[in-house]
Amino acid sequence: MAIIKAGKVVIVLAGRHAGKKAVVVKTFDDGNSDKRFSHCLIAGLAQNPRKVTRSMSKAKVEKRSKVMKPFIKYINVRHVFPTRYVVDLDVKKVVDEADLIDPERKVDCKKELKKLFEDRYLNQKEVTSEKKAAGSAYFFQKLRF
């Protein structure tokens, strides 16, 4: 029974992005030829959007959401902490495993991911299910600890 599934919001526990939130794109339960341990492909936010208040104009809110900086990486399942939240972002369409091998294509992939995250952040009200709306709101908040 796997807890870490695609769309699940996780917190990275180890490495450069420790303490950051990410979304699971794909899991490899039995590993593969080069990584012989269970791992997953995650896409997350290295830099969260800045704080927004109700009195701010739409232009200012948009400008403050532009600081988002995404990351994509393979990580050992033991180095992520699954949360109870799920996000219905279509990350699988943006992040292709073949693109991660070539550095230039990885940069393009991150740009696409940034667009996807910004679009979701600015249109959080349009999420259909309440559970996924909560997950989306949680994903874009900075982790306080």
UniProtKB/TrEMBL annotation:
SUPFAM superfamilies: Translation proteins SH3-like domain. Belongs to the eukaryotic ribosomal protein eL27 family. It is found in: Plastid, Chloroplast. This is KOW domain-containing protein. GO terms for cellular component: chloroplast; ribonucleoprotein complex; ribosome. GO terms for biological process: translation. InterPro entries: KOW, Ribosomal_eL27, Ribosomal_eL27_KOW, Ribosomal_eL27_sf, Translation_prot_SH3-like_sf. Residues 3-30 form the KOW domain. It holds the Pfam family KOW. The keyword Ribonucleoprotein applies. GO terms for molecular function: structural constituent of ribosome. Keywords: Chloroplast, Plastid, Ribonucleoprotein, Ribosomal protein. The keyword Ribosomal protein applies.
